[in-house]
TrEMBL record:
A Pfam family that the UniProt record links to this protein: Peptidase_M20
Protein species of origin: Candidatus Nitrososphaera evergladensis SR1
Example of a GO biological process term: proteolysis
Name listed for the protein in its UniProt record: Acetylornithine deacetylase/succinyldiaminopimelate desuccinylase-like deacylase
Domain Peptidase M20 dimerisation: 193-350
GO molecular function, one term: peptidase activity
Superkingdom of origin: Archaea
Keywords noted in UniProt: Hydrolase, Metal-binding, Protease
């Protein structure tokens, strides 16, 4: 049975993970990326996976690692694609690490280090699942491919270009997403989607330079101007965006989706105390709070900047006011279309003087809960972890839509990352017991996907 190979191979898995951690690969600083890509390619070869390091025409863009194993018994079988990333977040602040950030220290059932969970731990479970399959049976029951990118932590800026350039190579029938959380009760969360994002900057301009504030009787203050414009964009009571047609393409949840949402565990009280808040937006509770998390668009002020905020008083009328806003989007919403609606809204409300700068746009994606792929992955997760939680969508954003659009394949997020594994923070770790269960889960996904 492959499970016993997984158990016997845990030391090997850990040493591969340590090797990956010890090769820093910080995309924000462009450190060690090509080296790490080459290391991943080598690791795949060692596991029996054919690998290649692929580039775009612009060779300064970090490469992707492509991996492939064809099923010998059934070359016409379906193809499963694993999407991961080899880049990591910066290691700072250094003083808060108990070990060296890139040490891969093993202690108390944990492997510590930047990238141990996000995403190198996830990557090794998938490589090892394929390796043990090949070791045990000399074959894989379906075709397997890998795409491992190097810019996930900086917004996957080129992943769509890669998908388009290597569309034939990457063609597949289902995608296992790069990460998956495991909750405090050791239940893996199968997430079927991600929200989209529209990120903009609005600038209001006042006098040609900062003015004495006594002149506020005559000169319009751009900070007020911006505040007034912002007030027209969102209803404070309901939290709803009040821009015309903002929700036009948003479909309500189906009965079955609502049933899934109802079953999803969510400790409201703990959540509120964790963040030190007394109530949720619009006073949402119970299922409404969960519905908001998986399916509510937002208009969030991410930053506001104007005038004097130093010590004491400075009576000034600022020349400029600037706000950064992120709108979370849900399936059906097209970032470019929403941007046009925002611009029209400002114009219609007499704010055509406010400059709108587009910063980033990404559409949402969601795999249907009826897709047969969901049932297979869910069964695999239950067998390997003992239980599972199905989630209609994650509240966060990722490049899932690019995969759905270019490869036209359903995507499911499932993995080994403990909820409190301190990803993106000092002392990030991967739990060894979860790496073990997740590898067994991946083995089962490969088996069931082929069936
Ligand atoms: Zn990350």
């Amino acid at each position: 049975m492959i499970d016993s190979l997984v158990d016997a191979g845990m030391n090997d898995l850990i040493s591969d993970l340590q090797a990956l951690i010890r090769q820093p690969s910080v995309s924000a600083k462009k450190v060690g990326l090509v080296e790490c890509a080459n290391l991943v390619a080598k690791m795949m070869q060692k596991a029996g996976i054919n690998s290649e390091v692929l580039y775009l025409d612009d060779k300064t863009v970090p490469p992707i690692v492509y991996g492939e194993v064809k099923s010998k018994a059934n070359p016409a079988a379906k193809t499963l694609l694993f999407y991961n990333h080899y880049d990591v977040q910066p290691e700072e602040p250094l003083e808060l690490w108990e070990d060296e950030p890139f040490s891969g220290t093993v202690r108390d059932n944990k492997v510590f280090g930047r990238g141990s969970a996000d995403d190198k731990g996830e990557l090794v479970t998938r490589i090892k699942a394929v390796e043990y399959f090949l070791k045990e049976t000399g074959n894989v029951p379906c075709n397997i491919k890998f795409i491992v990118e190097g810019e996930e932590e900086v917004g996957s800026v080129h992943v769509e270009q890669y998908l388009k350039k290597y569309k034939e190579k990457l063609a597949c029938d289902g995608v296992i997403w790069e990460f998956g959380y495991v909750d405090a009760k050791d239940r893996p969360i199968l997430s079927l989607g991600m929200k989209g994002l529209l990120y903009v900057e609005l600038i209001a301009t006042g006098p040609s330079r900062d003015a004495h504030s006594s002149l506020a009787v005559l000169i319009e203050n751009p900070a007020w101007r911006l505040v007034s414009a912002l007030k027209t964009m969102r209803d404070e009571k309901s939290g709803r965006v009040t821009i015309k047609d903002w929700y036009k393409e948003v479909k309500p949840f189906t009965k079955q989706e609502l049933a899934v949402i109802s079953k999803e565990p969510f400790d409201e009280g703990e959540f509120r105390s964790e963040y030190g808040i007394k109530r949720f937006v619009a006073g949402a509770r119970g299922r409404d709070a969960k519905k908001a998390l998986v399916g509510m668009p937002t208009c969030n002020i991410a930053g506001f900047d104007s005038g004097y905020i130093g010590e004491g008083a400075k009576t000034v009328l600022p020349a400029k006011a600037r706000v950064k806003i992120d709108f979370r989007l849900v399936p059906g919403m097209v970032p470019e279309k929403q941007l046009a609606r925002l611009k029209k809204h400002l114009k219609d409300h007499g704010f055509s003087d406010i400059e709108v700068n587009f910063i980033h746009g990404e559409a949402a994606a969601r795999t249907s809960i009826y897709d047969p792929f969901v049932k297979k992955v869910d069964e695999a997760a239950r067998e390997a972890f003992g239980s599972s939680i199905l989630s209609v969508s994650s509240a966060g954003t990722g490049p899932m839509y690019s995969f759905v659009k270019v490869l036209k394949a359903p995507c499911i997020s499932i993995g080994s990352t403990y909820m409190f594994a301190r990803i993106h923070s000092p002392n990030e770790f991967a739990r060894i017991d979860l790496l073990n269960k997740c590898t067994k889960c991946m083995v089962r996904i490969i088996e069931k996907f082929a069936a």
